[in-house]
């Protein structure tokens, strides 16, 4: 499915799981070996032995879902308004009484462990390919975990797949065309057996989000794009994730009453201000061309043609910890090339985070007003916008990229969210009227925020000891 120099990445299914004779399988592996110019034996990774089964992943997801959602809708709706007004105290009580319990249950779900295992074995496969050794990914049907590992390997090794268009191409070829059974795994059809359901695509997106957290400069897309992509799997008006194979898609295409639309036409779903949130403000595109541009203009008094995003970062040093001299010339270019091309993630369980933006976004009482990762993201976008406008005012020629092309719409978003602070001693400061789950939650009304702060600051309020977190699901 992919190659790196003389090494190949191969996906292989068991020819027949009921047959113990491996003669035919060995013949196939011998053909793979002969394709290697040096005739080296390929490295076989039997994914069904080293990674969880689809049933294990589904059970883990169910435990995670129960942990991240309220136990009862009626109780949730009755108490939702109260928790919005007293969210700060509720969070303090949660940290004091339920924090250890929550993480214990999270650990028992094994979801983060499975994310860690997928990253670990993807990293192993990527390193083998970099060493010039062909890797064969084998599982029972070749359409489940092999999709996850194969996609992650290519993300780690090929920077082109870290762009929005490249990432969409990767999903299209590794998941859609090669026949991941979306209909069965996501339960689009009610008659599908429970044992066939498993959110493997969400597992892949979670692994991708982990990489985005560890390498924020390497990806053009943001976590908003990943979450929107996950939501799109459940929109029946798009055919991309609605079938088990290309055969089913072809049959539906020839049915007169079916109109198929690809999910990749984002412009038909969102306007420009929404699409602006798909891009990562910290992304550094075409780093090699940037360095070449710097070198070619280093002796010129005129303004260099440097992409705007590269100005957010200082000059890279050979060893930042001991203050060695700055690299120049071909050494600097080679270092930047190596740093951009390959990613080596931290795969230990302690390095894996919970994807709050995706799993907790429908729980308003867990929102952090005027804070969280979303606040940092908006500030980064504002900084990028200010740099872009400043360089234009200085008359510098800025090479347009994905982020600068949407600066106008981004400025419209920011202008609707900036409010003056209520602190009279810092009247010139501004803050954003957003929560930690932006843009998947509504903007905080100013009046409600003021009243909330007054209530939280009052000493006359007697809070109940009851908490919606004291549910039966936590006691199971």
UniProtKB/TrEMBL annotation:
It comes from the Eukaryota. SUPFAM superfamilies: (Phosphotyrosine protein) phosphatases II. PROSITE patterns: PPASE_MYOTUBULARIN. It comes from Anopheles maculatus. Coiled coil: none annotated. This is Myotubularin phosphatase domain-containing protein. Residues 1-359 form the Myotubularin phosphatase domain. PANTHER family: FI17948P1, MYOTUBULARIN-RELATED. One of its GO terms (biological process) is phosphatidylinositol dephosphorylation.
């Amino acid at each position: 499915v992919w190659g790196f120099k003389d090494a190949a990445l191969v996906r292989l299914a068991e020819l027949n799981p009921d047959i113990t004779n491996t003669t035919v399988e060995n013949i196939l592996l011998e053909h793979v070996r002969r394709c290697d110019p040096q005739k080296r034996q390929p490295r076989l990774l039997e994914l069904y032995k080293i990674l969880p089964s689809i049933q294990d992943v589904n059970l883990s997801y169910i435990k995670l879902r129960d942990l991240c959602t309220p136990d009862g809708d009626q109780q949730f709706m009755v108490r939702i308004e109260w928790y919005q007004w007293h969210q700060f105290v509720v969070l303090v009580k949660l940290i004091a009484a339920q924090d250890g319990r929550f993480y214990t249950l999270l650990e028992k779900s094994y979801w983060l462990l499975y994310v860690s295992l997928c990253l670990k074995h993807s990293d192993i496969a990527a390193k083998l390919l970099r060493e010039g050794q062909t890797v064969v990914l084998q599982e029972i049907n070749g359409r489940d975990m092999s999709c996850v590992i194969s996609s992650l390997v290519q993300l780690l090794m090929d920077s082109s797949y870290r762009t929005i268009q490249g990432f969409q191409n990767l999903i299209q070829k590794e998941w859609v065309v090669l026949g991941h059974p979306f209909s069965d795994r996501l339960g689009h059809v009610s008659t599908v057996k429970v044992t066939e359901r498993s959110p493997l695509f969400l597992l892949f997106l979670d692994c991708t989000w982990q990489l985005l957290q560890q390498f924020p400069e390497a990806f053009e897309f943001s976590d908003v794009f990943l979450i929107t992509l996950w939501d799109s799997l459940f929109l029946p008006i798009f055919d991309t994730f609605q079938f088990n194979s290309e055969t089913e898609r072809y049959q539906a295409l020839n049915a007169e009453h079916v109109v198929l639309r690809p999910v990749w036409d984002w412009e038909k779903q969102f306007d420009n201000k929404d699409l602006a949130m798909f891009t990562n403000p910290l992304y550094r595109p075409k780093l090699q061309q940037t360095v070449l541009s710097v070198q070619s203009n280093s002796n010129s008094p005129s303004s260099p043609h440097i992409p705007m995003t590269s100005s957010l970062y200082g000059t890279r040093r050979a060893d930042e910890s001991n203050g060695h001299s700055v690299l120049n010339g071909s050494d600097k270019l080679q270092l930047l090339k190596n740093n951009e091309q390959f990613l080596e993630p931290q795969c230990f369980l302690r390095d894996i985070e919970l994807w709050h933006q995706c799993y907790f976004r429908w729980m308003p009482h867990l929102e952090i007003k005027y804070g969280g990762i979303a606040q940092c993201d908006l500030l980064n976008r504002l900084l990028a916008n200010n740099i872009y406008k400043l360089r234009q005012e200085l008359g510098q020629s800025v090479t347009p990229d994905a982020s600068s092309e949407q600066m106008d719409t981004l400025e419209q978003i920011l202008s609707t969210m900036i409010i003056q602070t209520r602190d009279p001693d810092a009247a010139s400061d501004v803050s954003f009227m957003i929560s930690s789950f932006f843009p998947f939650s509504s903007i905080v009304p100013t009046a409600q925020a003021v009243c909330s702060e007054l209530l939280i600051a009052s000493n006359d309020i007697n809070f109940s000891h009851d908490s919606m977190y004291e549910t039966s699901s936590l006691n199971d």
